[in-house]
Amino acid sequence: MTDKGLTKKDETLVELLMRTGLSKNMAKTLVYLRKKEETTSVEIESATGLRQPEVSIAMQDLRRRKWVSKRDIKKEGKGRPVHSNKLAIPFEKIIETIEAEEKKKIESIESNIKHLKEIAK
Fold it and tell me: b/e map of 61-83 (b: 16 or more CB within 10 Å)?
C-alpha cells in the first residue's frame, strides 16, 4: 500500500491540534498514526515530510503522554532496530483528553480575569 501523505482534512486536523498547543511535528505524527493500524518512523517521515529527528522527538512526546505505543520488529542482519508505532488509545480519547486540557485553560483564564477585576476595583 502506498502512502498518500496527508489529505486536506488531515492538514486541517493538524492545524486544529496545533492551536491546542501541540507542536507541528506531534500533530502531523498523530494525524498520520490515526490513519494507520501500525507504521514505522520511516513511513511517517515520508508521508508527513518530517525529518527523522523530528519524528523521533514527536514519538517520544506522544509515548510520554501514553497516546502511542512502540514495539520492536525483528530484523535480519545488522543495523539499527526497526520499531513499529500505533495509537495506544483511540483517537477520540485523545481528543477528549485535549478537550479537558483546553477547558482547564479556559477556567484558569476566566478565574484570572475575575480576580483582576476584583483587585482593580
Answer: bbeeeebbeeeeeeeeeeeeeee
**57 in any annotated domain:** yes
The average confidence (pLDDT) of the chain is: 91
Cell reading at 110? 476566566
Nearest by Cα to 5 from 41, 56, 43, 39: 43
What CATH number did the domain enclosing 66 receive? 1.10.10.10
The sign one gets for the Cα dihedral 48, 52, 54, 57 is: positive
User: Per DSSP, what are the bridge partners of residue 40?
Assistant: 84
Q: How confident is the model over 72-121, as pLDDT tens digits?
A: 887 777 777 788 999 999 999 999 999 999 999 999 999 999 999 999 98
C-alpha cell of residue 83: 520499531
* Rounded distance between C-alpha atoms, residue 69 and residue 36, angstroms: 13
Domain extent, residue 38, equals 8-90
